Amino acid sequence: MMKYEALVFTVSALVVLGVADAFPDGASPRACVDMVPGHSSTTEPGRVISPQESISPYSVVARGDGYTPGGTVSVSILAEPSNITFQGFLLQARTLTSLDPVGTFLAGTDGASRLLTCNVTGDSITHTGPGVKRSGMTLTWQAPTESVGNIRFLLSVARNHDVYWVRMESNTLSASASLSAVTMPILVFLLGVTMATSN
What we know:
The structure is a single chain. The chain is of the alpha+beta class and about 200 residues long. The chain has helices at about 1-20, 180-199, and strands spanning about 60, 65, 70-80, 90-95, 105, 115, 125, 135-140, 150-160, 165-170, 175. It has a single domain, classed as Reeler domain (Immunoglobulin-like, Sandwich). The chain contains two helices and eleven strands. A hairpin with a 5-residue loop joins strand 9 and strand 10 (about 165-170). InterPro entries: Ferric-chelate_Red/DefProt, Reeler_dom, Reeler_sf.
């Protein structure tokens, strides 16, 4: 009987410890579509913690109002008030009509973020550990080489293991023509004018 109780205690402790450390090194690929981390309760084994329904103190803001195919965009995670910290996040860019992430993120150099593969390498980005992260954290997204239409960034943020918000939306970015698409017709026109006047 004592051995059985010891076994039950050991298994229970391992379950609790595993749950408490759920996804400490970043979001799971299972969160790619709904962006819900799937944290389990540490006090009620088997119960998944639901996201907060209150207004999130966090937001995601993309710099500018457009993107150039193949170009980069800075994306910031902000908090209001700004002294609120967070531990985990998942960030994607999506078109307005699709659940699939588009473009890719560039690996950060601060050690606080890592690339996550949902469909292609780096199409999402997440945290590397549960350490404190502050408002103003900025990440870099690279657009696809061809326009995919209007896009926006979606962000899920965990203040801690038990408190998180999902799918906050950024401002919408519209696709602008790439530099080559703009300049090539002009260059062809100027070349034609030059050749005509030289004759």
